[in-house]
Amino acid sequence: MKTEAIQLITNHISQRYDVAEYPALRRQIHDWQEQKPLQGMKLLDGTPLFTNTLVKFLPLLAGGAELTVAVSDAIPYDAALLPLLEEWGVPVVKNATAGDYDCILDCGGAHARLTPRLGVVELTRSGYYHYETSKLPVILVDDSRVKTIETCLGTGDGFMRGMEKLGYRDWKGKNVVIFGYGKVGRGVAYYCHEKGAVVTAVDRAEVPVAEYVTLIDKNDRKAIQAAVREAWCVVTATGVRHALHGNGAAEILRDGDQLVAAIGIEDEWGDELPMERRLCGGTAVNFLLDEPTQLRYIDATMALSNAAVLELKNGNMAAGVHRIPPSVEAYYWQAVEDGGLISNELKGAGL
Predict the structure, then answer these.
(1) How many Å apart are CA 48 and CA 72, to the nearest integer?
(2) Distance from the Cα of residue 98 to its chain's centroid
């Protein structure tokens, strides 16, 4: 049955992707189809379900896992894929509250109430807060260099594609203010700069920024208001709920004509800025897309998430949150560099 599911998924994704778009997962498929390291393991995978996520399932199935796919109302997903997975023999559960699993591959802590035998793999920093006191071993994929490919380049690229879908294609010489210069904000800044925008970031005064970015201290209310007043587009990328409360930006934006875009799932404005003043009603603009993050940028992250299952199986880890071993991460990073599709972008963004 796994062999049939692998073939059906492969046929489906081959209509959309070239194998060069997933060098890390391709390496993993090759390794695991021979080794069968997951033979008989029961896995629940709650990675946000889009077409590119199907590629993540191939090494799990090739490695012998008994795979169940999980979707949740808390995490965006493509509902059109649910009947296809069932047709291919891959069971799907929605809003799971129980289940017999060896490992859970989670996102955003959506399945933090479940208790797998061996532990949890968590994709995101926001998910960390659901697991920081866990009595199970938890491997945080977000705490890795590989994750910066997705969160910096992948999310930045998705932001730009989402804005272009909304009709905003001319960025040359226009002022963009980005709240938050972490991995996500850095990627947004990179792609805005590549389009010719003038980029300002608001974050802690000591945060290092690229030479093309002007930094404003997040506590400098006067400077923030002045920058927002002159902005063409304001982007929220802090990832923290209500992070912009009280900084003065909403006062300017409420009656202004600036574009206000989100690139995260948290509501960073709270009730200070009405939803009607936000693009897409406050939904992250990359989620307008059929593929919010292109496969080439999320490939290594998904491979690392899968690889973490082996660490839980073999590592006899203590309870609490752990990083994946550097040697495992380097193995898949090298696959991306050897693949070559995004090597120039890795250099351009300083990764």
Answers:
(1) 9
(2) 25
Domains 2-147+293-348 and 150-288 equal at CATH topology level: yes
Give me Rg for the CA atoms of the chain. Answer: 21
Using CA atoms of 259, 265, 268, 270 in order, give the dihedral in degrees to the nearest 10.
Answer: 100
Pick the CATH number of 2-147+293-348 from 3.40.50.2000, 3.40.50.1480, 2.40.30.30, 2.60.120.10: 3.40.50.1480
Question: What φ, ψ does residue 200 adopt, rounded to 5°?
Answer: -120, 135
Q: 268, 238 in Cβ contact below 8 A?
A: yes
pLDDT tens-digit series, residues 113-164: 999 999 999 998 878 888 999 999 999 998 898 988 888 899 999 999 999 9
Distance CA 82, CA 347 (A): 37
Res. 315 pLDDT band, cuts 50 70 90: confident
Which of 149, 134, 139, 124 has the alpha carbon at shortest distance from 74? 124
Hey, where are the domains in the chain?
A: 2-147+293-348, 150-288
Sign of CA dihedral 149, 152, 153, 157: positive
Q: Which residue has the tokens 């307008």?
A: 288
Please say whether the structural domain 150-288 has been given the CATH code 3.30.200.20: no
β-strand 66-71 against 42-45: which pairing, if any?
A: parallel
Looking from the CA of 289 toward its CB, the CA atoms found within 13 Å total 22
Q: What is the pLDDT of residues 23-64, one digit of tens each?
A: 999 999 999 999 999 999 999 999 999 999 999 999 999 999
Whole-angstrom CA distances from 167 to 26, 162, 228, 285 are 35, 9, 21, 12
Closest CA to 70 of 37, 26, 109: 109
